[in-house]
Write a structure and sequence with these properties.
By secondary structure, the protein is mainly beta. The protein contains eight helices and 22 strands. The strands form three sheets. The chain has a ten-stranded antiparallel β-barrel with strand order 13-14-15-16-17-18-19-20-21-22. Strands 1, 2, 3, 4, 5 and 6 form a six-stranded mixed β-sheet that branches. 29% of the residues are buried.
Length: 508
């Protein structure tokens, strides 16, 4: 079949017929993410709308020179936008209003642009939103010192749109198939030329961040490849070269790569970056949850002005722990943890007294905090520094006895900490952290001692890690807690815990 001999009208007719062929083929995700139509919201800025017309002009120029998207006019919904009592900035942040706008103009996606004047520069923030829930397909921002309406700013906006659309890992999709021939919604305006190779894939999974509604992970399975034989402005015709076992290139399948001028290798080469770091393409994106054990000892000391009444004791402790992280961005995380252990406590009085069993005690600890992660390498699995701040509470439930000078100790505090994660080799690594209570509150119960003069709150941990799979890591850790109170009668009470913590983390 030689398309070069066909008249132009017959090629267009074939394209229309191909739109009908395989209309019911393709996975539900492939259909859901065709992303063919886009509506351009009027931009917002904090300089009295100065940039609205210039942004609209730059966007119009960009979309007139491409074939992937069909721009939907927003004129039918101008009345909705103009009648709203909300300020325009709040209006374009309202998902329900944007859903109605997209529905009225039949746009699958919307582009939202905001411009902030910051000193002598302007910060541009661009969001690509998918109807109806207004999920974030991509976000991009840049800072410019160029004046409104300048050619330099126009070029910056066009480049930024290209970056925004590259957040989605495909370039276009199959619009139809007839035997060994496929059509795609990419033509010469998209840089496609005769002899180019198109690689195709099908969407297997799209993960949405539970809080930000951003699509954070896309998984595509390879389907096959085809060689471009004929190109129009907005469409291209290609002959199927190969297909994966059990797979067939169908309508809505995605163009995952355009290789110029020669057939592409279906599998990565032995020295490709993906093979060099086989974990990187499966890196987690949302956070992790973990469960572990606590094994160690809890000790207590009580000192007074007289050494004859000083007491000390300890007990074997065992229990469980849990921890979790939720990643909002690559740098900002939320973290929480809870642990509980019991121990059989015995103590002695002075330096010569014999040990006496007091009873069963407990140690509980919970925390909630924010983490700022500072990567020291480009790869996700590289070293990083961690800075944290939050609130935690420790409760040592030692059995109460006024004659044995024992009782519970509770310490809570706003705290700051820092630590790090260091890969050693292959799948092994080390993590560590140090937390110090800043604004502390301590309470001792079980026997009466004059007023609280001060308290201590120190936590330290170090762990060795082994990555079982990209989604699962085993951690063997050591944790040290030191807490105490000082009283006005030259008396102090302190609690210390030394614990080993084997833990299994699952990433998602």
């Amino acid at each position: 079949m030689d398309f070069n001999r066909w008249p132009r009208w017959s090629l267009l007719l074939l394209a229309l017929l191909n739109f009908q062929l395989e209309a019911r083929a393709g996975s539900e995700l492939d259909r859901q993410f065709t992303l063919e139509t886009v509506g351009l919201l009027k931009s917002w800025d904090n300089v009295d709308g100065l940039f609205a017309d210039y942004v609209a002009r730059a966007y119009e120029n960009y979309f007139s020179g491409q074939s992937r998207f069909k721009v939907r006019s927003l004129k039918p919904v101008e009345s909705i936008l103009n009648r709203s009592p909300l300020a325009y900035q709040a209006l374009i942040d309202d998902p329900k209003i944007l859903e109605e706008v997209a529905r009225k103009v039949r746009a699958e996606t919307l582009i939202r642009t905001k411009v902030y004047k910051e000193g002598a520069q302007y910060r541009f923030s661009m969001d690509w939103l998918q109807a109806p829930k207004m999920n974030v397909l991509g976000h991009h921002g840049f800072v410019s010192g160029d004046s409104a309406g300048s050619a330099e700013l126009d070029q910056s906006l066009k480049l930024a749109l290209g970056v925004l659309f590259s957040k989605v890992p495909f370039l276009g999709h199959v619009t139809g198939r007839d035997q060994d021939w496929v059509t795609v919604n990419m033509g010469s305006l998209s840089g496609v030329e005769k002899g180019d190779t198109l690689l195709f894939g099908t969407l297997d999974q799209v993960k949405e961040h539970p809080l930000t509604r951003e699509n954070v992970d896309w998984k595509l399975n390879p389907v096959g490849q085809a060689i471009v034989q004929n190109v129009e402005d907005q469409i291209a015709f290609a002959k199927v070269q190969s297909e994966e076992p059990g797979q067939e290139i169908r309508r809505y399948h995605k163009v995952t790569q355009l290789v110029k001028g020669k057939p592409a290798k279906v599998t990565p080469s032995e020295d490709s970056e993906e093979d060099a770091n086989p974990w990187e393409h499966e890196k987690p994106l949302l956070g992790f949850g973990g469960l572990g054990l606590l094994i160690g000892s809890v000790s207590r000391e009580y000192h007074t002005g007289s050494s004859s009444t000083a007491t000390s004791g300890s007990g074997f402790a065992y229990g469980i722990k849990s921890q979790a992280q939720l990643w909002f961005t690559d740098h900002l995380w939320a973290e929480a943890g809870f642990s509980y252990a019991t121990y059989s406590y015995s103590q002695k009085v002075g330096t010569t007294g014999s040990a006496v069993s007091i009873g069963t005690g407990s140690l509980s600890h919970w925390r909630i905090n924010a983490v700022y992660a500072l990567p020291l390498a480009q790869t996700f699995y590289g070293p990083r520094l961690l800075f944290r701040g939050g609130y935690h509470s420790f409760n040592y439930g030692t059995p109460s006895s006024s004659t044995d000078f024992t009782g519970s100790l509770a310490v809570s505090a706003l705290y700051l900490g820092m630590g790090g994660e260091i890969p050693i080799r292959d799948r092994y690594g080390v993590s560590m952290g140090l937390d110090l209570g800043i604004f502390k509150s301590a309470e001792q119960s079980g026997f009466t001692v004059a007023g609280n003069e001060g308290s201590t709150d120190i936590s330290f941990n170090v762990s060795g890690t082994y990555m079982i799979t990209p989604k699962m890591t085993f951690m063997l850790g050591f944790e040290f807690y030191s807490h105490g109170m000082e009283f006005s009668t030259t008396t102090d009470a302190s609690q210390t815990a030394v614990l080993f913590t084997p833990t299994l983390l699952y990433y998602f």
